[in-house]
Specification:
The complex is a heterodimer of chains A (507) and B (379).
Chain A: E1 10-21, E2 24-35, E3 39-44, H1 50-57, E4 65-70, E5 73-75, H2 80-85, E6 88-91, H3 103-108, H4 119-133, H5 148-161, E7 166-170, H6 178-193, E8 197-202, H7 205-211, E9 214-219, E10 222-228, H8 233-241, E11 262-270, E12 276-285, E13 289-294, H9 301-309, E14 314-321, E15 324-325, H10 330-336, E16 339-342, H11 356-360, H12 376-389, H13 405-417, E17 423-427, H14 435-450, E18 454-458, H15 462-468, E19 471-476, E20 479-485, H16 491-498
Helix pairs in contact in A: 4-5, 8-16, 13-14
Chain B: H1 2-30, H2 35-44, H3 50-75, H4 83-100, H5 106-135, H6 139-159, H7 184-187, H8 198-216, H9 218-228, H10 230-235, H11 240-267, H12 278-288, H13 293-316, H14 321-347
Classes of the chains: A alpha/beta (507), B mainly alpha (379).
């Protein structure tokens, strides 16, 4: 499509944006140019830094370094108020609508000046904005009665009614059904015809190609590059996931045909929005095997890990370990069956305000409390031992909240692996960790494999997935769309499977 | 962030104390008293004579119970504001049994009354607790709204079936002699004449037991984990709902015993004024005590001290007794205000990475909206 538009025609210009969260560099000197009248997709994996970059532009996050210019003039954006004044609007993933209020009331909220509230004029403004851009909203409808797609349109009208010229949409299609996506794209085309510019955050290759004039790809906090909107999907996939270092450290398979230790049959579950997130997943994991689950984030990996951990209810299907049925039985039963869980959200899965020693026994309190009395000597000794064994940089009485991300992950790892689990469910084990801690975590997982554990690994780090796994399955929209031997994996094939283009490559 | 929070907690506490001194000091000045002398009369004088010291302990008794009841619930992240109503139900149970047991031995009657009061308090706490764990309905609202209902039950009894047949006053008949809590001066020779009764001993023992359970047992660890991180506790296999339900019932039971203590130790009958807001003062005691049991003990004694000091200052310094209420009201408002500031500052959105694509937590929610995880106090 077009890459036209001169330098002087930039609607917004971000230079050298850097943002750190503790150890994690979410944005590393990122540049982005937004040309007036374009739809500019921001593509990247979960955690690549897309949302952070746009939160900086909208004033929701303060960058550690970098400058922003709007319409060629440098601006200082400290809060959304400043961004709105500069003509920037954003529709975040979680809408900021007041549910019991009408559409009109929501649109004028925070803008009404003076004591008198002119609802009639406000209503007219909503209708005008809606007419001008062809957005179907009912000014008098109460927001909580609207579908998610309609609520999104209200958010867009809200931004437009504030005369925004740059509209940021953070994964707008994640909550929409296909027809609503078409309507949204129609709206976006009207917006750019009117001279607005749109930043469209996504990790779905197909829709990015459909709607975008240009695509900027981010990976691990860095800007990989900007390409034309009609760039080949393989190329985009490659930019997005990097080029995995295939074939390193390949171990001989340890398992032989026979009964799988972890058997998943026909497993279906809903996600957070109440939409179906898993569809009849079938999967076996054998003792001494690591099975990797690949997929662009939001395609069911989180839900799969939660169901297997006993933290989410399945709507159908079965999960069994050595024949014992575990689905919908709760975390205690899952753990008792010998399943160790290392979750994606490690902070929420520990009790951060309790000391390391107590967190290390949290899954087995009764073993350290004969007749109900905590055996503090044994708890302390256990903590000392695991701290030594897993090289955790902490003292037993340190509160977990005071530890670094890598050490928090080691606390979880120690808590789980010290129980010799037969099955390990592990999600994003190295996300946000530095190189040393990541290596350590991977070595521990391989050691468990060598000792005969059955490991299911969810990771968005394809390097990690390919180098650790024996087999890889690809989840797309909650279904397994491909199963490959890690030894045969190549990045393009994986990328296409992850992008939901299974048929094109004949998987 | 951790030390930061403790530091902030300290700052808020210092700010709260300064505010309390400034506001209550102004009240003394307006009442025409020298603030320094007034503080001495309110807080120091009661501790200097044996009789008033024992009265301090006596005044502290009900709020030690209610403070413990509140603190235990809050530690689990269960916001039981219904201690007042649960106390009234305990008082009703005590008065009911006390009327029936004429001629029974005290060794049977006293445990029976305490047990019945505990059951009654727990029963009154049951419905809000079930609504919370089964349907996620905010217990702050339901427990609070059941308080006036409990008072109506008391009034209904006192104006109806239990109206004193001799005087016609809305008071229940006096309970049996065996149902009265013995006064401590009766069997501890060192203690001078005073109203101080068995209830005080029970309250202190309860606080010690609660301290032990919370800090030294597996049950206590589960309660603390649930209060600090419901999701983390559930992930580790702790049954969060069951823990909350049990804590709510124990909290209600302790509140019920507070009601027994007032009926059997002080009033010897059920009256409409059996609790001048002991349940709400319990929230103040629990918060002042930082939800830790030693703190609850100290805070209860402090408010007992204040209560005795305020009554005597009426005579010694001609400070109207209402100023005592002003000081306590100031304490209450400042503490709740400080708590709100503290919670607001800890729950405000931190500058942290956005959770891209992370699913919303599914129902039922671990806690109602806006309820912050509780702070782990030092043990």
């Amino acid at each position: 499509m077009t890459t036209s538009g001169g330098r002087g025609d930039l609607a917004a210009e971000l230079r050298g944006i850097t943002k750190r969260f503790g150890d994690l560099v979410a944005n590393d000197a990122v540049d982005l140019d937004l040309i007036r009248g374009e739809v500019h997709a921001l593509l990247g994996e979960n955690g690549a830094g897309k949302t952070t970059l746009m939160r900086v532009l909208y004033g929701l996050t303060h960058p550690d370094a970098g400058t922003i210019a709007v319409d060629g003039r440098p601006v200082t954006i400290r809060a959304p108020r400043d961004a709105i004044a500069a003509g920037i609007g954003m529709v975040t993933q979680h809408f900021s609508l007041v549910q019991p209020m009408t559409v009109t009331e929501n649109v004028i909220l925070g803008r009404a000046a003076g004591a008198r509230l002119d609802l009639t004029a406000a209503r007219r403004a909503v209708e005008e904005a809606a007419d001008r851009f062809g957005i179907a909203v009912r000014p008098d409808a109460v927001v909580e009665d609207l579908s998610v797609g309609e609520q999104q349109r209200v958010e867009i009208v809200k931004a437009l009614a504030r005369d925004c010229r740059v509209l940021i949409l953070d994964e707008p299609t994640a909550v929409l059904v296909p027809q609503e996506v078409d309507a949204l794209f129609g709206t976006l085309r009207r917006l750019i015809d009117e001279g607005l510019s749109v930043v469209f955050i996504s990790h779905k290759l197909g829709e990015v190609r459909t709607i975008s004039d240009r695509v900027s790809v981010m990976r691990r906090g860095q800007m990989v590059g900007t390409a034309a909107g009609d760039t080949d999907e393989r190329e985009l996939a490659r930019m997005m996931v990097g080029r995995p270092a295939f074939g390193v450290d390949r171990q001989e398979p340890l398992w032989h045909d026979g009964e799988a230790r972890l058997q998943i049959r026909g497993l279906s579950a809903h996600g957070g929005h109440g939409l179906a997130a898993l569809h009849e997943v079938e999967l076996d994991v054998h003792a001494g095997e690591i099975v990797g689950v690949a997929g662009v984030s939001g395609n069911g990996q989180t839900e799969l890990a939660e169901v297997l951990s006993g933290m989410r209810r399945a709507t159908a299907g079965s999960v069994s370990v050595e024949g014992q049925e575990l689905v919908n039985r709760g975390p205690e039963t899952v753990m008792a069956a010998g399943v160790g869980r290392i979750p994606e959200d490690r902070h929420a899965s520990l009790v951060l305000d309790l000391p390391v020693s107590l967190n290390l026994i949290m899954e087995r309190i009764d073993d350290y409390a004969p007749r109900g009395h905590l055996d503090r000597t044994a708890i302390g000794a256990h903590a000392e031992e695991l701290i030594e064994r897993y090289r955790i940089k902490a003292r037993p009485n340190d509160r977990v909240a005071t530890l670094s991300g890598g050490n928090i992950q080691k606390v979880l790892l120690a808590r789980v692996l010290s129980r010799d689990p037969k099955v390990v469910i592990v999600s994003q084990p190295t996300r946000g960790l530095d190189v040393g801690a990541s290596e350590y975590v991977r070595e521990e997982l391989l050691a468990r494999r060598a000792e005969g554990a059955a490991i299911l690994l969810m990771s968005e780090d394809l390097d990690e997935l390919v180098s650790l796994s024996d087999r890889i399955v690809v989840l797309y929209e909650g279904r397994i769309v491909g199963r490959i031997d890690a030894a045969d994996a190549d990045p393009e094939h994986l990328g296409m499977l992850m992008a939901g283009r299974a048929t094109e490559v004949g998987a | 962030m951790a030390e930061n929070r403790i530091g902030r907690f300290g700052m808020i506490t210092i700010g709260a104390i300064i505010t309390i001194l400034a506001v209550s000091g102004s009240a003394f000045v307006i009442a025409g008293a020298n603030p320094i002398a007034a503080y001495e009369a309110y807080f120091i004088t009661p501790l200097t004579r044996e009789f008033t010291l024992l009265e301090v302990l006596n005044k502290a008794t009900p709020i030690l119970f209610t403070g413990t009841a509140v603190a235990i619930a809050f530690r689990a992240g269960y916001w039981n504001i219904g201690v007042e109503g649960q106390l009234l139900m305990g008082a009703v149970a005590a008065a009911g049994i006390g009327q029936l047991v004429h001629g029974w031995p005290a060794l049977v009657v006293l445990p029976l009354m305490v047990g019945a009061g505990a059951l009654a308090g727990a029963a009154w706490a049951l419905v809000p607790a079930l609504l919370r764990v089964r349907l996620g309905i905010d217990e702050v609202v339901t427990t609070l709204l059941l308080n006036p209902v409990a008072l109506l039950v008391v009034q209904g009894l006192l104006h109806g079936p239990w109206k004193d047949p001799e005087t016609g006053f809305p008071e229940s008949p006096r309970i049996a002699a065996a149902a009265e809590f013995p006064q401590l001066s009766e069997f501890i020779p060192l203690i001078g004449r005073s109203r101080l009764h068995l209830g005080f001993v029970i309250a202190v023992v309860l606080i010690i037991v609660a301290w032990y359970v919370l800090s030294r047992t597996s049950t206590g660890l589960r309660v603390r984990a649930v209060g600090l991180s419901p999701h983390g506790a559930r992930f580790a296999g702790i049954r969060v709902e069951r823990t909350l339900l049990r804590v709510a019932l124990v909290s209600g039971a302790i509140a019920g015993v507070a009601g027994v203590s007032e009926v059997a130790g002080i009033q010897f009958r059920l009256t409409e004024g059996v609790s001048p807001g002991f349940g709400y003062t319990g929230v103040v005691v629990a918060m002042l005590g930082g939800l830790a049991m030693p703190g609850v003990l100290l805070a209860g004694l402090l408010l007992g001290d204040l209560s005795v000091g305020a009554s005597s200052a009426v005579r010694s310094l001609q400070i109207p007794s209402q100023v005592g209420d002003v000081v306590q009201g100031t304490l209450l408002l400042v503490v709740i205000g400080a708590l709100a500031v503290y919670r607001w500052r800890t729950t405000r959105e931190d500058d942290r990475p956005p959770d891209e694509g992370e699913p919303e937590p599914e129902e039922p929610p671990d806690r109602p909206e806006g309820a912050a995880p509780v702070e782990e106090p030092p043990t």
